[in-house]
Amino acid sequence: MDKFVLLFRMDNTMQTPSPEQLEVYMKQYHDWVGGIAAQNKFSGGIGLSTEGRVLLPNNVITDGPYAEIKETIAGFITIKAKDFDEAVSLAKGCPMLKGEGNSVEVRKISGVHNKED
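and the corresponding structure tokens:
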């Protein structure tokens, strides 16, 4: 099986959910991830804060993520799947896709830092 990363992008221009709404959203998310884990296809993941720094050439450091874009990467998980089709099929169930302007990007993990389990 190959490994894939699912990058969760959220629209920064949308209203922040209430604590009650956030609790519902998080339950939906955990239920979705639990379903992937039950298939032994969940590898890990983490949420990301909205603050950060962006390093550019010539030792330039800016606050990030960029304020001029309307979306930010909210977090990611890694999954195991036999191919892109299966990875996309698993990603389609992500409850973030119910939010206007949100998206899930599916990328195959490859390269020199790819460690096999």
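(Above: one complete record from the training split.) The longest strand covers residues 71-81.
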